[in-house]
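Quick note —
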Amino acid sequence: MVETPFRGGETAGETSIAPFRALFAWCLFDWANSAFPTVIITFVFAAYFTQAVAADVVTGTAQWGYAMAASAFAVALSAPFCGAMADHSGRRKPWLLALTALCVAATALLWFTRPDPADALWALVCVGVANFAFEMGMVFYNSMLPDLSPKARIGRISGWGWGLGYAGGLVCLGLVLAGFVQADDPWFGLAKDSAQNLRAVAPLTAVWFAVFAVPLFALTPDAAATGIGAGEVFRRGVAALWETLKHIKDYAQIARFLLARMIYTDGLNTLFAFGGIYAAGTFGMDFSELIIFGIGINLTAGLGAGLFAWIDDWIGPKRTILIAVAALTLFGGALLFVQSKTLFWVFGLPLGIFVGPAQAASRSMMARLAPARRRAEMFGLYALSGKATAFLGPVVLAWMTAYAGSQRAGMATILVFLITGMVLLWPVSDSRC
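Predicted structure written out below.
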């Protein structure tokens, strides 16, 4: 592969490709930020909250669901406007830097969550703020992709990023397991009786994110600044977003794709947010087992993202998404019926193979469809499609869990979102050009 300089501007990414170091640094950000959803949102801290902080598992599951819903709603309101403003300011990295710093700080503050119901509100506020900053940062991170790669390679670069992200989550989980959860003497002399060894996963994740995010800010080029003042950027961004929404029929394929993604991503995000909680509450997995399972599913997810990276460029992102979401529905449905912990492993680990491709192909499809002048705005709408109804998934799951008194009943609502998303995506025209 011959490297050519980054050109920036409207035509960048159509035929040129950034230097390898810039692409690797961009992918490494996935390695950096994946520790947050893996360790905090899905496997370790979420389970610590429901089992040790909240009054009981069912109450904790519902509270966690409401916190995720609130942060998702905030992202849905903010992302399109911020993306539109970024298109008029030109640069993406200042926005990404500020949001990364906010996520790192809020995550580190989770250390102060003691195993006491009195600390539940503190934990929910911190994790809600951190999740908001994480999801908002993805708007600007994702919108950099079309400027770094030609369309013919977007699928594989997006897939490689997701694959590296899962590898990062796997390594971070391994450190957590070895140093804090299974260690007879946890690192840094942390006490187990006050759950310091479990609370420490928060500052560890924060440091991990901060350190491995540095290469992107140092090595990956940004689009040129437009020189427009902040007030004018805000005015133009809001006006541009309003024009896009008024003429949404001119972007019919994008609108249909975003509607479908809105639904299946809601199911996918809810599955991630509550997977560890479900495993702990229904199958009795302890923290060590949760982390080992997390390592296993990150391994299969990383392999899936890497393998499907070429398939995306070969058969197109739409077909890749349909295959992945269909498989997630089948394996997820099986997990609702199995009774033994062994069968949970048998069906849970293969499920991971299709998580990465569903996410990576969605990003590459948006990168292919987005007009050059409005990439950050479109990725803002992309974030909106992932969050506009994202509060519904956790809310419906939380309500059904509380109403039925069963985690299985709550988790079953996820399948409805996955199946509906596939049905809506089916008529969307494939985009491989």
